[in-house]
Amino acid sequence: MKFPFFLPLLLTSFVANSVQNFNNAKTQLVHIYVSHPERTTFYCGCEFSFEGKKGNVDFGKCGYTPRKNQVRAARIEWEHVMPAENFGRHLKCWRNGGRKECKKDAKFNEMEGDLHNLQPSIGEVNGDRSNFRYSQFTKTPNQYGQCQSAVDFKSRQFQPREEIRGTIARTYFYMQDKYNINLSDAQSKLMTAWDNMYPPDEWECDRNRQIERIQGNDNRFITEKCTN
């Protein structure tokens, strides 16, 4: 699928006149990733493509093997790097009825639709990650074939592949800073270590700039580490 050269202008105009929420964010993200077909899924580094808004994963090139859910594994879902529960529970609506009740809350919709906190994920991995905390443990990453991320269901932990750990850290710091989300001491220490160990690559910097043009704000924790 090819888009005309004036797509960024059209998209910016669309965003300027739209409310920030999860549905609009998914539309915007499809445009970003269709324009960058070389990009891969967040947790497993698999190539994917779109038919309209439907994302399809190419298992053959990345060696991904579905753990359990073949149908969900074949599709792209938009993963909240900081889970909705983490930022939603700070709001009264969450205490009154969870995510369903918060769908009526403008602040929750803004947070849920923040492009900086959304990444393309294989649906099965997105479901398995759930709201588990990020961690580092010794589990061999072989649950999804050659995918280098792993999940520990018993301890409710998710170990992301090394290539994205810095991105995760800077996303957490962004959400903490923008929405006043509390991080535990253990989370802060881990994210600080990952931020220092894994600086942003060219795509993380470019994606940040694109989101700033669309959404109107950057992730300063990325910007300050990007040279251009």
Overview of this protein structure:
With 228 residues, this protein is mainly alpha-helical. The protein is 46% helix and 11% strand. The protein contains 13 helices and seven strands. The strands form three sheets. It has a three-stranded mixed β-sheet, with no helix packed on it. The protein has a two-stranded antiparallel sheet with strand order 1-2. Helix 10 (165-179) packs across helix 11. The two termini are 29 Å apart.
Write out key terms for the chains shown.
3-stranded mixed sheet, two-stranded antiparallel ribbon, disordered N terminus, 7 strands, globular, 13 helices, mainly alpha
- State the separation between the terminal residues, measured CA to CA: 29 Å
Total strand count, please?
A: 7
Q: Structural class from helices and strands?
A: mainly alpha
Q: What percentage of the residues does DSSP assign to strands (E)?
A: 5-15%
- What is the 3D form? globular
Low-confidence stretches: 1-17
